[in-house]
Write a structure and sequence with these properties.
The complex is a heterodimer of chains A (160) and B (379). Chain A has 160 residues and is an alpha/beta fold. Chain A is built from 6 helices and 7 strands; from the N terminus they run βααββββααβααβ. The longest helix of chain B has 31 residues, at 251-281. Classes of the chains: A alpha/beta (160), B mainly alpha (379).
Chain lengths: 160, 379
Amino acid sequence: MAAISFPSEAFFRELKRLMGERGERFRALGYFDVIFGVHVTPDRPGAPESRFVLGFDVFDCIRADAVAAFGNDVDFVLEGQLAVWREMLENIKGRGAADIAHGINTLTHFGDALRVRYDDPDGHDKLYRFAESIQEFFNLAAHVETTFPGVERAGATARA
Amino acid sequence: MAYLSTRDFLDDKAYLDRWQYTLRTGELDLSWMNVATERIACRPQSPRRGLTFRDLDVGSYGFSEMPEIIRENRSFAPRGAAMPDGLPDAQADVNLKSEVWAYNVEGYYEEAMSRQWNATTDIPWAELAEIELPETIGKAYAQLLTFLTEVEMIATDVPAKWLGRLNADFFEVKNFIATQAMDEARHAEVFRKRALTTGFGLMCASPHNENNLKFLRDGDSFAEVSLGLHLQAEGMVLTLFRFSEFISPTEADKKLFRLVMQDEARHVGYGMQHLKWVIDHFPEKRETIHRYLDEAENFVFGAGYCTEVTEPFIILAGKGLKRENIAEGIRITRRFQLKQIEEYFERLTKCGLPERRERSKLARARELMQAALDTPVGS
């Protein structure tokens, strides 16, 4: 399969497809009902930024869309610089799953690597109600040949 | 044996005659077939999701139209069943909907059932058995796990204690509380198992923590208990689980904390939606809630920030006991404790208690932490 660039709608649609292929794994984890955003911010002034909405219902990913702005239906947004996303995805690709420094909870905990944006604490808590499913979803990136055109590597490991 | 039958059925001729007559003649009474209960059709709105409690929210079986005061059902009759004369008064302690109800409680129940996991088989124990933790880290981790086992044992006892005291009409809440008791039992199990696999065993019980747990266990009403347990204590513990995942020494430990945080976040969700229900429907209860929180916050500060809880965090976050490790551990732990209080106030604000930020004694703790963040460790 041809490599897919990150960030792109094609990348998240590939994760969506892979989740469908591994339905039994996600069914075993249980209902997964959340809509969240991924905001990839630029590493340098003037570089483009991207926003994606990922929607999950019952056991499936039902939405993986690039958007211009996040709507009110989004429970929370994971936000961070492109270099941080690159480091996380390369770590997953290299190991098959995130290591102790590159899990979503670890990267977002103090907001130094990735940040969690939210208006409603109930929506925010869905990041934790579905923590294992969300981590498994991102771990699917281990099966995607991903390229990062024009992206610098950066030390993204979570630091408090 | 406090409750005795008013009849000895094997000596009751009328009862025996009726039973034997049916079996001898085949003449059935069938009066139970003629009750005037409602006939409805329930189908899953989503076949992928299955048949949920929300799909059963229909007519007299539903929960949306349930009144605030449950006057009719004093028995164990499931909501919607016919209630003939002679049903016992089950003497439920909680008969007011506002004491237990929460927006989306039926959804939290279904989510709980769907997302159950198994502490025996879902954690890679064999992988953990190969990992030897350095003594300082291992002891600090074992102390944290001892504290968490203590917490989760009482978090099991509390919902279990109240389960049978709720009116049978609160079917969805009772089922949700049952899942919570199961969740908490699994948490106590997984923390005990992990403590005993660190190689250091259990460490020291915490008087401060246990006094807070006693306060939670002995709440006067379910509404108090829910406020103290679901929203305040579990809210604090949810942030603590997330921090514990953050500082966990292995991938398997991180998975363990991800799994427990899922359950905990669901309990906090119920607590928030319950408090929101109360504030929306009975705003006059606001002052009562504040008075309870005044004491609950005192206890939780004593429990959550005491020596035997704070020091393991410092060691685990700083990864050791050298001066530089401790300085780093304190820096990280300060941020965690500040975050814990911030998230607690955020939840209360969302539930309709924004003024709690100003009234709470924890605001003073937050000020002390904020000031400490700007102060170098050791100064």
